[in-house]
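Lecture 7, part 2: worked example. A protein chain together with magnesium ion.
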Amino acid sequence: MTGRIIKSMSGEYTVQTPEETIVCKPLGVFRHKKIVPKVGDIVTIENQTIVSIEPRKNELVRPPVSNMDKVLIVTSLVEPILNLNLLDRMISQVEYLDIDIVLIFSKEDLVQKEDYLEIKSYYQSLGYPVYFTPQEAEEIKKEIKSSICVVAGQSGVGKSTLINLFDHFSLKTDAISKALGRGKHTTRHVELLSVEDGWIADTPGFGVLDLDMDIVSLSHTFKEFFTRKCRFHGCTHINEPGCQVKADVEQGKIRKSRYENYLSFVQEIKNKKPKY
Ligand SMILES: Nc1nc2c(ncn2[C@@H]2O[C@H](COP(=O)(O)OP(=O)(O)O)[C@@H](O)[C@H]2O)c(=O)[nH]1
Ligand SMILES: [Mg+2]
Ligand SMILES: [Zn+2]
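Predicted complex, written out as structure tokens:
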């Protein structure tokens, strides 16, 4: 029988088959080969045992989720303070994995929306669907239809709150700790929840991962850079002459924060390189 892992907790995996939901353990051989089943995996089960895992179309290490169609990146406009550097970092990480992105700016009810419309339209101009919550929660529900989605974002931005809006799962949310400017971790396990014939997973952390890519790959994850015609093929938009990206930043056609965040990621990747 085949099914999808929809939940993992303490080494046990809940598998959803067309007929039923069964809690399974993996064959010992997986552990010996250091293969850990992930939520999202399509698996074959026999007698409540996972005997094989189908190749994954994509996967995250932390949180351990596979076969995603979309990552919903949640950024709060306030509490915790709007962090476009973290947003651009997550976008680059997900672009690098070649997974579709939906952007959500939360806590719109606590700010003057007009102050943030420019940011919204800039990211829309890159081709990303962008929503403000709680106002546009119904639109997001449509994004989940028939797909497997993961909600990512800094602690306290409102990921669990958002998922609760959809189907009243009563995931634990936490009153934000004002002193720290962030919520506490309350999401302990990974689980796909059923919404609109699709699936959505809350995640505990995500967001402060290393950028595990080279500089050319990084530059390709910035959609508005990729389409610019620089003088040199393979331009990394740092010091090269005839760089159209730099020219367009100066003319305000590329958002300055995007370019500055790019440069900070370049620096981070350079600092990580082993020195001989
Ligand atoms: N005003 C307002 N508060 C929100 C919103 N989303 C979340 N919160 C609050 O922010 C805090 C953290 O939310 P939570 O969903 O636990 O964040 P998570 O850590 O990303 O899962 C809670 O006190 C929520 O009630 C929102 O859109 N507007
Ligand atoms: Mg949460
Ligand atoms: Zn360039």
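Residues 256-272 form the longest helix (17 residues). Residues 230, 235, 237, 240, 243-245 surround zinc ion (ligand 3) (CB under 6 Å). Keep this in mind for problem set question 3.
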